Amino acid sequence: MVNVLYLDCCIRRELSRTRQVAEAFLNALEAQGRYAIDRLTLMDEPLQALSEGFLAQRERLLLSPDREHPRFRYAHQFQRAERVVIAAPFWDLSFPALLKLYIENICVDRITFGADEHGTFGLCSAERLLFITTRGGDMTDSPLEMGARYLEALCEFWGIPRFDVVAGNGLDLGLEPVENILARTTQEALSFARDF
Ligand SMILES: Cc1cc2nc3c(=O)[nH]c(=O)nc-3n(C[C@H](O)[C@H](O)[C@H](O)COP(=O)(O)O)c2cc1C
User: Fold this and answer.
1) How far is the CA of 98 from the centre of ligand 1 (A)?
2) Distance from the CA of 93 to the center of ligand 1, in angstroms?
3) Which residue's alpha carbon is nearest to atom 1 within ligand 1?
4) Domains of the chain, with CATH numbers?
5) For residues 44 and 23, what is the distance between their CA atoms, to the nearest angstrom?
6) 83 band by pLDDT with thresholds 50, 70 and 90
7) pLDDT at res. 173
């Protein structure tokens, strides 16, 4: 079985169009019977920002080679995953802060990345990461789109060689029925499910 970590950052939960696309993708994976999906709903996790005492604790812990503290569980889980799927809407030119909070918690030296005299190198096991998103406007090829581009850069940092994005655009523009956009976006997502 291929171990897939699914990160759900669809803040609107059942109302989320992004989640609708992501669930179709995950169902298609599950139907193949060769993917074990580990679901992490970020809205239900006690994620903390790296502020004051929480950062100081991390600095102390990183002085030792031991990375067994429970606060590193998210980083270990992410490091072990063989595939990663992230679902998050397009907010304020990128994605919700909750996903950034998660990222802040998994970027841990000697778990998800390492560093030597040449710079940093990734330590993650995943061969690929798929980002599923929907956007109110049409951000196709827009330089203002910072969510997918940031995640792509992070994949390089984490050592994940392949990054793909499936994006539904223009959901709030009223130029095309939302169902049509979602149907097209779902088809695109399903094309990635065949050989994930
Ligand atoms: C807080 C917030 C910020 C948003 N920021 C943007 C934005 O910067 N650009 C844009 O095109 N749409 C923006 N949108 C619209 C969403 O991208 C769009 O409605 C998306 O489909 C929401 O996904 P969901 O249905 O999965 O929640 C924003 C929506 C919210 C609630």
Assistant:
1) 14
2) 9
3) 91
4) 2-193 (3.40.50.360)
5) 18
6) very high
7) 97
